[in-house]
UniProtKB/TrEMBL annotation:
PANTHER family: HYDROLASE, PUTATIVE (AFU_ORTHOLOGUE AFUA_2G14860)-RELATED, MONOACYLGLYCEROL LIPASE. One of its GO terms (molecular function) is hydrolase activity. This is Alpha/beta hydrolase. InterPro entries: AB_hydrolase_1, AB_hydrolase_fold, AB_hydrolase_sf. Residues 143-258 form the AB hydrolase-1 domain. Keywords: Hydrolase.
Amino acid sequence: MFKMYVDNEQFNLQINRFIHDYYEEDERTSSDLKTIVPRLTDAESWYEAWREHAVMREDKQDYDLASAYYQAAEFYLLPSDPNKEIMYQKYRETFYKGFHDFDYESFQIPYENSYLPAIRLFTPGATKTLLVFGGYDSYMEELVKMMRFLRGTGYHIIVFDGPGQGTALKNGLKFIHSWEKPIAAVIDYFQLKRVSVLGGSWGGYLAMRAAAFEKRIDKVIAFNIFYCGLDALKIRMPDELWKKLTALLATDEAEQVNAMFEKMMEASIDVKWKITKGMENTGETTPFGLLKNFEKHTMEGIGALINQDVLLLAGEEDQYVPISRLPQIQRELCNAASITTKVFTRETGGEQHCQAGARHLAFDEMKKFL
């Protein structure tokens, strides 16, 4: 179950996301967290605490744990900070040293003037293929780690970083809404006839978008539901502030929007991270430009184009995605072959974003669906 470590709700989400779902019963982690958690007061102390323990665990050859700590250490660093690239590379280096859940093969899929990095996880006797990708801030290695929950499903699994994610982003490919393009590139590269897709977090929207326009997809998993990009900003803002912002966006009042976000970024680690990470992903240089970019990331107008089998997973207390979007998504999927829905509550567990703290519950539903 989701565990509260500190007063900051996003800090709690990231600790559960990176650590709790995999190492809840691990004595190494329990010991480390007793030292780490009291130090977590701001972005700088977050980085220092996780980095120090990552180095310590790497020295002890606890590579899986070191990798999780390096990912945490990298999380709030600004793109301009040279330590961000160092932490990212250490995260990946230690991840592959410690990953033994599947036999796998790595690929570089040609895409535009660069490539999409991908890993194919082999399942003996499998006859079908599942494509897996993240969203706003996840790396393919994080998704690869989750695939332990899907062992034995009869699917070969291909996990990849799309434009604006992980190594694809590092190589210059910026975040896009038209996810059917990278999906088509992956399908073509592996010469596949049919695939199922699993999109994590913002990838819940990207999976829907891809399914609307790429009909070699037969099943769609939204892990979690994600109707539009602006929801992730709106959900923790006072209604009056959001109404003001919406009005300013509609009339292209860029200077006022930027000034408002500069103040909010000074006051909130969460808002600062959302905006700086978004600008890194998309290449936008101002909050106004970023919000205009996010307006493209929406299910509005595409729901009726989705005619596949769909699994909708939703957390009742998701801090990024309002649960109120669920009925709207269900209505707009008017031509889906089938719709399976699972809402996770505090009573069931899995009430948080992407079921952080009880991730196995989400994957149990995925296995049934597949």
